[in-house]
């Protein structure tokens, strides 16, 4: 028993006998139109799936006095973690130096794989203990 026979045995609806079938041009046209519609929909959905959409959205923060959460992911392949810091200045001129809230520093190997992780708050506490 071949693969083709095995698949035919799984068919829920057996094929009708040839003397019961009536082939018409309108039936062929419906089949061809259906295939064209299916191929078009498949191509459109595949293109939509493979297309990348970048959405840039910017708005003014009207809440004065509150901090604005900023999420960044930056990779420096050949820079030691010790020399990295984050500084910020707002429109009013308020300057925040060496921000250290919720910053992770991930050590990477030459292939970009993570080989070490330290949470910056832990680093700041260790430095504070060593300085005093």
UniProtKB/TrEMBL annotation:
Protein name, UniProt field: Endoplasmic reticulum vesicle transporter N-terminal domain-containing protein
Keywords assigned by UniProt, alphabetized: Membrane, Transmembrane, Transmembrane helix
Domain named Endoplasmic reticulum vesicle transporter N-terminal: residues: 7-96
Annotated InterPro entries: Erv (IPR045888), Erv_N (IPR039542)
Record field: transmembrane: 28-50
UniProt organism field: Punica granatum
Family, as annotated: Belongs to the ERGIC family.
One Gene Ontology cellular component: endoplasmic reticulum
Source domain of life: Eukaryota
Organism taxonomic ancestry: Eukaryota, Viridiplantae, Streptophyta, Embryophyta, Tracheophyta
């Amino acid at each position: 028993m071949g693969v083709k026979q095995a698949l035919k045995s799984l068919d829920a609806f057996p094929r009708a006998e040839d003397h019961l079938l009536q082939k018409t041009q309108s039936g062929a046209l419906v089949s061809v139109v259906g295939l064209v519609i299916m191929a078009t929909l498949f191509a459109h959905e595949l293109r939509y799936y493979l297309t990348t959409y970048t959405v840039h959205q910017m708005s003014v923060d009207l809440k004065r006095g509150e901090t604005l959460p900023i999420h960044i992911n930056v990779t420096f392949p050949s820079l030691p973690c010790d020399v990295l810091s984050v500084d910020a200045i707002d429109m009013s001129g308020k300057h925040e130096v060496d921000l250290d809230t919720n910053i992770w520093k991930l050590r990477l190997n030459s292939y970009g794989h993570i080989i070490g992780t330290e949470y910056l708050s832990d680093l700041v506490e260790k430095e504070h203990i060593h300085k005093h």
